[in-house]
Amino acid sequence: MLVIQKYGGSSLQGADRIRAVAERVLTTRRGGHDVVVVCSAMGDTSDELIGLARTVSSDRPAREMDMLLTSGERVSNALVAMAVHNLGGTAKSLSGAQAGIHTDGHHGSARITAIEPVRVREALDVGAVPFVSGFQGICPQSGDLTTLGRGGSDVTAVALAAAMNADLCEIYTDVEGVYTADPRVVPRARRLEALSTVEMLEMAAAGAKVLMPRCVEYAHRHGVDVHVRSSFTDRPGTLVSHSSEGDSMEGSCITGVAHLRSVAQITVCGLSADPSATTSLFEVLAEGGIPIDMVQRSRSAAGHTMAFTVPASDGPRATDLLKQRRENSGDEHVSCDLTVSQVSLVGVGIGAGRTSIVARLCRTLTEAGIDIGPIAASELRISLLCPAGRLDEAVRALHRDFGLDGATEGTVEAGAIR
Ligand code: ASP
Ligand code: MG
Fold it and tell me: Which residues make up the binding site for substrate (predicted)?
């Protein structure tokens, strides 16, 4: 059996954890399986490197940022490989480029275009454990190193699993799997034993941080099943699979409650009634690579208004792009509100009961005295905006009222979920 194991930054924080990961890898290897390991950078290394870059330059070329950030994963993979040697195993660490991970040239958010894992296979053939630096690749046209976006080691693992036709892709993290809500916000959140890849896709897009959305997208497209587990325990984790039906509790058609704390709501007032104005508005955002959600259009005596959300980190750039556009589009006024958050209910049962779910959701939040902003519904998800300061309460109230609370409060093993 070929197993891909990916370890997140918090699982690699410090020598003890590195040794524990090496032991886990060898246990799998000695169980007779081929193992390919993908490690993220240790702990907060990537954030620290970004902080360091900020202290030396206000203008940080994306190429240089990628040169800098790719180093974090080389450090951790080499260290775990050494720890494996120390325990009597053989291992060989490889950068993303050496592992044959080819990407396009978009520094900071490159997409994998091909994987030629020749050296990974060579290492396996001589009985060694290959360690592949996560989150990175090389653009063959420019010869430059690239990164896949924050949290991108998940993508590396799933992409390798697809390319090498692995039997299992395990993502080791600091929580015991995928939960019905972020356990740091909802102490009674329950671990899901299994859920479908499409539900996970919705959960990740709606803010569940346990897996990077693009990794789930990749898994979905390439038919890779992903097993999310804790590197701190031997508990069973969550299987995210194509065949899985999910295990939403009886009496609830909701699989989980996800949230996005940092959302920017952009409003464009005074939009021309000419439909081409709306088209060009979204074209500008699409060219800027800005993901939008919760689109609303309204019309009043004052003219047309278009409102939508973007990740808070994209808020200023989206506003600038739209303001530049306004110079060519008459009387528009663009504003950016950073005081909202988004909460979403996700589940395959949503389609059928949408109206009653929205009604119940409104009742829950109204009883809690929480203002309800725009609501958007699809077959798998209902999202709404609420005041950022009331987000945690909203998540907890919905989790309870939709029957998701577990009997006891759980524990989160370590710090931030990466
Ligand atoms: N080290 C990178 C980050 O912090 C990639 C990863 O952790 O997957 O975003
Ligand atoms: Mg992660």
Answer: 73
**Closest alpha carbon to 224 in 136, 160, 149:** 160
- Enclosing H/E stretch for 49: helix 45-56
- Look up the CATH superfamily of 257-401: VC0802-like (3.30.2130.10)
Residue 67, H or E segment: helix 62-86
Q: Domain residue spans in the chain? A: 2-248, 257-401
Alpha-helical regions (H) of 87-196: 118-125, 153-163
**Pairing label, strands 333-346, 293-300:** unpaired
Residue 210 marked in a binding site: yes
Structure confidence at residue 408 (pLDDT): 80
Predicted structure pTM score: 0.87
Q: What is the maximum alpha-carbon separation in the chain?
A: 76
Q: Is the pLDDT of residue 308 over 70?
A: yes
Q: Judge whether 173 is annotated as a binding position.
A: yes
Is 9 annotated among the ligand-binding residues?
Answer: yes
pLDDT 10s digits, 349-361: 888 888 999 999 9
Q: Looking at ligand 1, which atom is closest to the CA of residue 44?
A: 4
The best mutation among 46, 74, 76, 145 to test binding of ligand 1, ranked by most ligand atoms within 8 Å of the C-beta, falls on 46
pLDDT level of residue 414 (50, 70, 90 thresholds): very low
pLDDT in tens, 385-400: 999 999 999 999 999 9
Burial class from Cβ neighbours inside 10 Å (0-12, 13-18, 19+) for residue 88 reads exposed
Which ligand 1 atom minimizes the distance to the CA of 47? 4
Asked if residue 8 belongs to a known ligand binding site, the reply is yes
Distance 396 CA to ligand 1 centre (A): 28
150 CA: nearest ligand 1 atom: 9
Q: What one-character-per-residue DSSP string does 308-322 give?
A: EEEEGGGHHHHHHHH
Question: pLDDT, tens digit, for every residue of 152-180?
Answer: 999 999 999 999 999 999 999 988 999 99
Ligand 1 pocket residues where CB is under 6 Å: 9, 40-41, 46, 72, 134-135, 150-154, 418
pLDDT on residue 253: 80
Over range 41-63, report the average pLDDT.
97
**Residue from 37, 38, 70, 73 whose mutation best tests the ligand 1 pocket (most atoms within 8 A of CB):** 73
| CATH architecture for segment(s) 2-248 | 3-Layer(aba) Sandwich (3.40)
